[in-house]
Structure prediction request, 167 residues.
Amino acid sequence: MTIRRSDKQRSVVPVNDPAVALAKARSFCAYQERCRSEVIIRIRSFGLNREQAELVIEKLEEEDFLNDERFALMYAGSKFRILHWGKMKIRAGLRSKSVAENLITPALAAIDEEQYLQSLRDLITAKLRTLTTIEDPRIVKQKVFAYLASKGFEENLIFQEINNRNK
Prediction:
């Protein structure tokens, strides 16, 4: 019988030592940008108590391994560029990671407005190409709207761009 990777239970072994936990947390944060809540969950899985975990978090922030502002900017930029998410979905994603609202707003403002609208137009075009067999224009509009809303774009922008296309 072969053991597949998915069959294995992967768990974090409790270390109970703040110095070892700090080293592991540094490695965790260096691999990719992390937010505070992700790091707290990881550190708590090492078996540290709340006070020890807070000390490790403070040390990580002091050494600039952990920075929620930088995380918010990277998250917003990458979700927009790579996955073509709209601002509403990005905001919800950042909120789900417990990022403060005062960090979310500048991260969303960093997205270039012209690129944002161009991405919306490109998604409309791509979706319309998949709906060529549907003859009723109302159903086509509904499907395009539902798709773009699921991507997190604002309703008013979706309607504006769909209506501009029909002129």
